[in-house]
Design goal:
The protein has helices spanning 25-60, 64-69, 85-91, 94-127, 133-142, 148-162, 168-192, 196-204, 209-220, 222-237, 241-246, 254-265, 269-289, 291-299. It has 304 residues and is mostly helical.
Length: 304
């Protein structure tokens, strides 16, 4: 068979059939799980976590005889049981109202002092040069592993010699002392992530260390400070062990007062239920009010 010299033979390749890749069973399950199912599951879990809070709220809005006769869920079929009589009784109880104020007097100064002192110390360990800086910081980190129970008796004896045992001052100082190591550790690591060029530029503009700390560092440290403040607030507000040892009848917080009500009156539910709900709902309000800053502070440094 002959062919012209100028003819060019072209080889036509057969078309390649496109094969649709089928997803594996694991991929389909992962896609299904990452969709609406996870959202529904998380909502259900969240509702289960809220059941004790809702139950305590409804129990605090019922009369003592109704609580003795049936559970709190009875209000869904008999809404007429709801009343604010327990809260009126609570407001007339000087022990509970006074202890609630004592809790505020303890928690607010203990939180503010830890945030302020921890911020100053964290900045010093991160950006200031002084003899033995690394060794001092290692000492602060070592204090993180010291349990509170070890220091209860020695500190109680020390406060007794100083004349502040059983007072609000002693409780505040104890919480500040044990809250500072974590505060310094957290804020020092956060401050160390601030770009050095930013601080050097502020120094070239004539900013001193104090002005640099207030005008540059503190605004950047808002999320970390919010996270630290929430941690410290929740720890001090819900504390019972330290308050049970270092307070007396005039300085006891709400946690100790509610325990005393149980011991004295057995089942004084018309005071215990609303008191416990108020004691629990205030930290929840604080947490949800600063939840965005809390998440940002916890995740600070995780992603560059």
């Amino acid at each position: 068979m002959s062919a012209d010299a100028g003819s060019v033979t072209k080889a036509v390749s057969p078309p390649v059939p496109t094969v649709r890749a089928e997803q594996s069973l694991g991929s389909r399950i992962a896609g299904w799980v990452s969709g609406g199912f996870v959202r529904v599951f998380l909502i259900v879990v969240g509702l289960f976590w809220l059941v004790p809070t809702i139950g305590l709220l409804l129990a605090s809005l019922r009369a003592p005889q109704d609580m003795a006769a049936s559970g709190w869920w009875k209000v869904f079929t008999e809404p007429s049981q709801l009343t604010f009589g327990a809260y009126e009784t609570l407001l007339k109880n000087d022990d509970i109202t006074g202890s609630l104020l004592n809790t505020v007097y303890i928690t607010v100064p203990a939180t503010v002092l830890v945030v302020v002192i921890g911020s100053l110390a964290g900045y010093a360990f991160a950006w200031m040069e002084f003899p033995g800086r690394d060794w001092w910081f290692l000492g602060v980190v070592a204090l993180l592993v010291v349990p509170v129970q070890v220091a209860l008796l020695p500190v109680a004896e020390l406060f007794g010699n100083l004349g502040i045992f059983g007072s609000l001052t002693g409780v505040i100082l104890f919480h500040v002392g044990f809250g500072l190591p974590f505060a310094v550790f957290l804020l020092r690591n956060f401050f160390a992530e601030i770009p050095r060029e930013l601080l050097e530029a502020a120094r070239l503009d004539g900013a001193g260390e104090l002005r640099l700390f207030v005008r540059v560092v503190m605004p950047l440290a808002g999320p970390a400070i919010a996270a630290l403040g929430i941690f410290q607030f929740l720890w001090v507000w819900n504390d019972m062990l330290v308050a049970l040892i270092f307070t007396d009848s005039d300085s006891q917080p709400i946690t100790v007062a509610l325990t005393s009500q149980v011991r004295q009156f057995g089942s004084n539910i018309e005071v215990l239920a609303p008191g416990a709900f108020i004691s629990m709902v205030i930290p929840l309000i604080v947490f949800f009010a600063f939840q965005r800053q809390f998440v940002s502070g916890v995740m600070a440094g995780a992603v560059k």
